[in-house]
Amino acid sequence: MFLFVMRGNWCSMDDGYLRVDHRLRMHGGGSSSSRGIIMCLHNGMVPMALSLVQELRTLGNTDAIHMYHCGADEMTPLSRTTVLAVDPSVQFIDVCTDMVGSGKLREDQVPSFRSYWLKPLALIHTSLDHVMLMDTDVMVFHDPALLWDVQGYKDTGTLFFRDREILIQMFLTDIIEFPDHSKK
Fold first, then answer.
1. DSSP 153
2. pLDDT of 36-72, one tens digit each?
3. Which of 22, 34, 51, 106 could be a cystine partner for 129, CB 3.0 to 4.6 Å?
4. Other CB atoms closer than 10 Å to residue 9's CB: what's the count?
5. CA–CA distance from 179 to each of 11, 108, 174 (Å)?
């Protein structure tokens, strides 16, 4: 699970270097058009993304949701149709195709962004002023829009949450000893 909240715009990679645009702006809580949730995914992650979208909307979240992917084969028409049946306002962005088309990424670099590196590419590409970057396996218990009003976010423009760590072998392959209370 990963959740990152950011305020501000990232500048382009015109000279090959990434820099944060220092025009960080305060929007007094932000408007629904200048803030949103970014998820980076591929076809195999659509079921989890659908669940998260349903949770967000059920909890009352009205922020824009942008689903980023890298290449047409990572998000099939069936996947798009399935997501849009749940929430027609979701936007899909093929960031790799956009960046290759604009000359900011070479075709031979595309495979490098088909994993965790898609997240920084999405943050560079987005037009949103306020971004909540979520993994599709995030578990939300309240509307995350509350985070836009957290003082730490207002002061610094960022919030970070530690990713949960699960050692799957520890829970699924270990023999668990239960105390025998019947012998007392």
1. H
2. 999 999 999 999 999 999 999 999 999 999 999 999 9
3. 34
4. 19
5. 59, 58, 16
